[in-house]
Design a protein that fits this description.
72% of the residues lie in helices and 2% in strands. By secondary structure, the protein is mainly alpha-helical. It has one domain. The strands form two sheets. Strands 1-2 form a two-stranded antiparallel sheet. A two-stranded antiparallel sheet has the order 3-4. 41% of the residues are buried.
Length: 413
């Protein structure tokens, strides 16, 4: 009896958009099927030291910690994220510098994307935390200047210097994340009413900087971490016919999707999971389609579209500029990451290394997705409180009008 009471109390303590909670939980529960199936390749590569059950337990622990972060975050009033973004911004910049300067490899990948956390001994991708913090910071600043008169020069130091500093530190090791951040920043400036000609100038500066960075990396390959050559070669491989590791991955993913058909080969019956090096993370969507067919594939897409719909609802219900911008800053990158991952699997985009949010394995991705969802749900919880207060106020006014109609009429006049 006490257990049932505790469960009921827990669910009562959950605030915010229940539909968004539900779709996040469904994606997490569904993820156990493809992760368990796809991780057989990792278990084989690690021999006696690994098993599919081990990876399933690891994924479960990542989700438990992720949803704990989500629960804790959604309890924080969203106005507090203003100050937290200012405090966290210099911290994530330092973390990005430390991460970038490592210059070593980890399991065949460039370690300048991860940092090893001492004592607990797990790796953490600092760029994902930096992207969340930066976008919240940008939302805060844009809401601050929304109703003021400003010049482009006045916004360079507080807005654009942090943006380009964070993106510049992420770019050499993770081009796709840097590109997503820049696009979301531009989207925020549009929604936030930032002067269009200033935004156009920033786009020009960004493109020139990217071209110069690419040319410098080509001319002096030893000047930057070797990840630069990786993302440049991915674009070249995507547009060319030469064979490469990325081409191999995409070809295997396409075979998995093609053999999946309408209903798929059945759960646990994927063949290409044995050939795809990143079958449980970057290319997990291909495994989903191979085993569950187009039905499963479209089901996943619909889940993210529904998530986008709920995020849009929360934006429209937010009464403050900061609330609206914060939801866009935290929620839209999740949707972008999902569809970029899917687009890579079907060869609409070059290989990026973006995982499928809440579905693909990977601790940092799950934790930061849950952190972002917690922020979005925090805003929706505030919307609910405001709606309840407005309803109470309206009811109070209606009752007053019934009891004292002459008094209300005199106040109105």
């Amino acid at each position: 009896m006490s257990t049932n009471s505790g469960i009921k109390d827990f669910f009562k303590s959950i605030k915010g958009d229940k539909m968004l909670w539900s779709v996040a939980a469904l994606l997490a529960i569904f993820s156990f099927i493809p992760v368990y199936s796809a991780s057989s390749n990792l278990a084989y590569l690690h021999g006696a030291s690994g098993s599919t059950f081990t990876y399933l337990v690891k994924h479960f622990m990542h989700l438990v910690l992720g949803f704990s972060i989500l629960y804790a975050t959604h309890k924080i009033p969203y106005r507090y994220f203003r100050g937290l973004s200012i405090i966290m911004l210099p911290i994530v910049i330092i973390l990005l510098i430390v991460t970038l300067l490592q210059g070593t490899t980890m399991q065949g990948a460039n370690a300048s994307r991860w940092i090893q956390v001492p004592i607990v001994n797990f790796s953490f991708q600092t760029s994902t935390l930096a992207s969340v913090v930066l976008l919240i910071y940008v939302a805060r600043y844009l809401s601050k200047i929304k109703e003021t008169t400003y010049t482009f020069k006045e916004t360079i130091l507080p807005l654009w210097i942090p943006v380009f500093l964070v993106i510049g530190l992420i770019l050499p090791a993770n081009f796709s994340t840097a590109a997503i951040i820049f696009f979301i920043v531009l989207l925020l400036t549009f929604i936030g009413g930032y002067t269009f000609k200033y935004t156009a100038a920033i786009v020009g500066v960004g493109l020139v900087g990217l071209v110069l960075f690419g040319l410098t990396a080509k001319a002096f390959p030893d000047l930057f971490p070797n990840r630069v050559d990786t993302w440049i070669s991915r674009v070249e491989n995507f547009t060319g016919d030469e064979q490469s590791r990325e081409k191999y991955q995409v070809e295997k993913a396409k075979i998995a999707i093609a053999t999946g058909g309408i209903t798929g080969n059945g759960i646990g019956k994927s063949v290409q999971r044995n050939f795809l090096p990143q079958s449980s993370s970057d290319f997990i969507y291909a495994i989903i389609v191979e085993e569950l067919g187009m039905v499963g594939g479209f089901g996943v897409i619909l889940a993210y579209l529904f998530m986008l719909y709920r995020i849009a609802i929360i934006v429209t219900k937010s009464e403050t500029t900061y609330g609206r911008l914060l939801v866009v800053a935290a929620g839209i990158p999740i949707i972008f990451q999902a569809f970029i991952n899917i687009a890579v699997a079907v060869e609409l985009l070059p290989v990026t290394g973006q995982t499928l949010p809440l579905v693909g394995s990977g601790g940092t991705s799950i934790w930061m997705t849950c952190l972002s969802l917690g922020i979005v749900i925090s805003v929706s919880a505030n919307n609910e409180v405001n709606a309840i207060e407005q309803a109470k106020q309206k009811e109070k006014e209606e009752n007053l009008a019934i009891e004292n109609p002459l008094e209300v009429l005199s106040e109105t006049i």
